[in-house]
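Trying the structure run again after the queue cleared.
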Amino acid sequence: MEMTTRVFWEPEYVARFRCDGTACGSQCCRDWQIPVDDRARARYQSMPDTAARASILNAIRPGTETGAPAFANRSDGRCPFLRDDGLCQLQRDYGEAYLPGICWQYPRVLYRFPRFIECALTISCPVAAELVLGEAPLRFHRLRRPLPEGRPLLRPVPAVLALKSAVFSLQRAGIALLQDRRYPLDFRLAALSVLAARADEAARQTPAAERLAALCRDAGSPGFIETLRDASRSSFDLTESLRWRVRLMGEIYEHSFSPEKVDGIAAACAAFYPGFCRDVRQDFAPLLENYLVNEFFLRLYPFAFQGPFTRNVEIFLVTGKLVETALLAAYAQSGRLDRNGFVAILVRVVGHLDHNAMAMRRVGWAVDEVRAAGASVSGLMIDGGVP
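Done. Tokens:
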């Protein structure tokens, strides 16, 4: 495969990632059909080894959901090329060049910009989660490394590219706020909401790119977050917030909770909320921060979805609080939550959101309903905010 080098901007942990099915139980190689893209199928068809070519091509069938070509799973749900030791037969025998695009990419998420590529790993992969969810803040670096030609990369929409360097100014300003450990995490989230609102104001002016760059120029300075203190104050009703989140959790998991069920779950969670704040939110604050920073960068917030920056940040807030709600529910069940349980829940919930487009649509619809009613999503989600 022809290799070229590209400049990457990414968290430093990406360089340490190695796909290892023995460490995660090969979760991405079972219980779903792996699509075979045209590029991969053409490579299989051109293999000189007749027996190998036939073996691989015979394993490709129309997918059960879309009808597109995919590897037909074995009766136990495993990919036909998953070995008993948890490793991939295709990669072992023929190298990474023969992997379908999705296998080569996952758990990486890559965006191609004109001058470089942004790359991060989703924590729906347990191996990636162990790299992301550490105590130290995530650090980013720029480096040049090989990239196989022809591999699929996400492309930002033209409206994003039109903002030029302002995209990265706003992205890094948001990360700077999220990583300011002088303040409680919820205050940082509230400050991020205010930054998004001010960015929307700047974007409505001309020239938008220059206005946004000016707004974000000092966002990494020690005093910047202080300018958001008064603007970040919001009311917070724990019971209302938990009911709203529990209802939405039911929707994204396609469970129709009755009002009584919603009230019961919310009441149980509320009873354990003080202990949860002490034993989980406080003890695991660095891990929660790194999860949020990684998601913010990985999904290209505040440019991930159509609509204003505030809508993007509100979707980001809600998904983060849904994860926190799942953690709270687990804590309420047993009165404790250790690190392994914490990470397992994060991986499970993020995996569901990663692989279920309808779940994320429901989050967006829920945010739009709150916005249409003239209410504050951050006020509904964020506990206090101001230290």
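The longest strand covers residues 3-11. Worth checking whether this holds up in the mutant runs.
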